[in-house]
DNA sequence: GCTTATATATTAACCGTTTGACATATAGAT
DNA sequence: ATCTATATGTCAAACGGTTAATATATAAGC
């Protein structure tokens, strides 16, 4: 593996000159530039990123912490972030925390030790001031972690409003809401508040139940869905806080012979691919994941040059109507 | 941010002593060990991983290249690999190649420049000898890339056999096979060969169609499914090369009023979460993703110490029966 | 008491870059 | 011919670790 020194020797200049060219500082004659380029090509030179980062006291890694990579919503986040990070000349260090604070802290230490350029947090960690643990910009996605850490969210409150309005407009007389684990993501609770507000304004009765953290991670909600329907057989519309719950509602209704959308209408949340693949396909609230991720990555990149970034950014959501309503 | 030197000064020894302790080389008195530990704690010292890697000429990053992170099968791979990599003291650099050779090469150069400890390839790159591009162990998942690059696969041929046998045992009289893009993953083609062999042995007629690369990436197979059914209205069993196609078959049958499993039986491949969430749920061939990933990560770790690893490893698959058959 | 083995600490070079300080060459202005 | 800008290049010290070679202290063996 050839080094800067090899390139310098081969092209008859010093390492400083080569480095200067590589980093676009100072002046370089066209002739020298040519010589260096030729040498680099000939030696198949690739700058050692570790040495470079050590010297600059900053790597071009960006850390992304998600609870899990097997949850389809986070997959979308991972996919978007990876493309954006790479597109901006950085590299993605992926961390899955299982939503455990202990693991999140370990990852923070690890990322800090690798001198990452920034961290994007899509995992919980309520009320922990992580900024002390790392000397790099942090930004959280769809969660507000502490007053000082910037966040980029979608309009969860509005999402709840859209869902409730849609169900009511479609003729539902009694609604239900099933949330993910409200403990894990306080922001997402706003979906319920929006939903609730509309129900109350329109005088439509509703019930609400909350899944546990364990259910969220294992993605198994059958039990609570069954008991919800058992104890409220008159419900004709369900708004779920994520699409995975919605898919299971559909499954259970089908088993129980409840026809969708005739007897029961379902609105999910997130708009993951699953919505399209289900039969019937799922009406849902579309989160602008791409926009959110783009903002997050941009923030990290901008903060490299100490440019100020807004502390709170909110993107609008939209309702996507499919077969389940 | 404190350094080794700070720790050494604070505990009244030299950096070598501290480093020696950190790396568990040579001898350290219990007293010294205590002093150093106290100093490290007090200074909240974290070794700079970049410096360490530079010095050792090898980082503890492991690169994973997948076509896309939004495909549910690869999500599972990402999730498994991340956990295993972290569990072995490494960090995951995630790369999404879109199955483009050019991008894969770029990623290889990038990974090489970051002195990764190894690369796990779950993306195509047929017949390119990537080992020249990087001085680190490479291992491919579910693909055979070149004679010299080790791979870990599941038994695709057997998967095809299980699927066909199951459909025939369930009473199907005419079968169809829809493959992903056979161009992208030659290994997966063996699923068809296994399927074909059983059909021929049992004297069951079949048709086979192949999706395009574009369809694989966009996950939209509706067109070919419609035309398959249009031109072969007598098919009563379909074996698809991945679960996403299977979900769409179910969707289209439902639209066309073809009842599943009564009039049409469907077997998918991979056993991603989607199978459970679909209505009806999907019978599929289960790939032991965890085992495969574990083997892959272990291989990379073992090769750090130049331990030999087998060039080809194959894991068995199983059929998981659900509602679609 | 002297030699040897074992335990512990030190010095300094190296990993591959970046970069501030400084040197030299060239050309234009006076 | 001298002075000043401007262009081009060089030296050497960081960055934060690792590690081979070497020195010193301690205990054991005879």
UniProtKB/TrEMBL annotation, chains A, B:
InterPro entries: Cro/C1-type_HTH (IPR001387), HTH_LacI (IPR000843), LacI/GalR-like_sensor (IPR046335), Lambda_DNA-bd_dom_sf (IPR010982), Peripla_BP_I (IPR028082). GO terms for molecular function: DNA-binding transcription factor activity; transcription cis-regulatory region binding. SMART domains: HTH_LACI. Keywords: DNA-binding, Repressor, Transcription, Transcription regulation. Residues 3-50 form the HTH cro/C1-type domain. Residues 2-56 form the HTH lacI-type domain. This is HTH-type transcriptional regulator DegA. It comes from Caproicibacter fermentans.
């Amino acid at each position: 593996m050839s080094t800067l020194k090899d390139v310098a020797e081969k092209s008859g200049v010093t390492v400083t000159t080569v480095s200067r060219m590589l980093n676009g500082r100072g002046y370089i004659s066209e002739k020298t530039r040519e010589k260096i380029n030729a040498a680099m090509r000939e030696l198949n030179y690739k700058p050692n990123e570790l040495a470079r980062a050590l010297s600059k006291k900053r790597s071009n890694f960006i850390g992304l912490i998600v609870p899990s990579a097997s949850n389809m919503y986070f997959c979308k986040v991972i996919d978007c972030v990876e493309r954006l990070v790479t597109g901006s000349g950085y590299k993605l260090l992926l961390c899955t925390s299982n939503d455990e604070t202990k693991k999140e802290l370990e990852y923070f230490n690890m990322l800090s030790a690798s001198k990452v350029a920034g961290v994007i947090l899509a995992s919980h960690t309520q009320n922990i001031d992580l900024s002390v643990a790392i000397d790099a910009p942090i930004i959280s996605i769809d969660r507000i972690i502490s007053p000082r850490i910037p966040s980029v969210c979608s309009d969860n409150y509005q999402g709840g409003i859209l869902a409730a309005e849609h169900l009511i407009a479609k003729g539902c007389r009694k609604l239900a809401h099933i949330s993910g684990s409200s403990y894990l993501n306080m922001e997402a609770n706003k979906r319920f508040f929006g939903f609730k507000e509309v129900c109350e304004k329109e005088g439509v009765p509703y019930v609400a139940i909350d899944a546990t953290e364990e259910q969220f991670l294992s993605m198994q909600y059958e039990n609570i869905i069954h008991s919800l329907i058992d104890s409220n057989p008159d419900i004709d519309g369900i708004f779920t806080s994520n699409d995975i719950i919605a898919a299971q509602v559909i499954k259970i209704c089908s088993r129980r012979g409840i026809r969708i959308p005739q007897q029961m209408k379902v609105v999910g949340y997130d708009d993951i691919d699953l919505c399209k693949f289900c039969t019937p396909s799922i009406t849902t609230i579309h989160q602008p994941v791409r926009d959110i991720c783009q903002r997050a990555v941009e923030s990290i990149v901008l903060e490299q040059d100490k440019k100020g970034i807004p502390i709170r950014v909110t993107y609008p959501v939209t309702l996507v109507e499919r077969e389940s309503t």
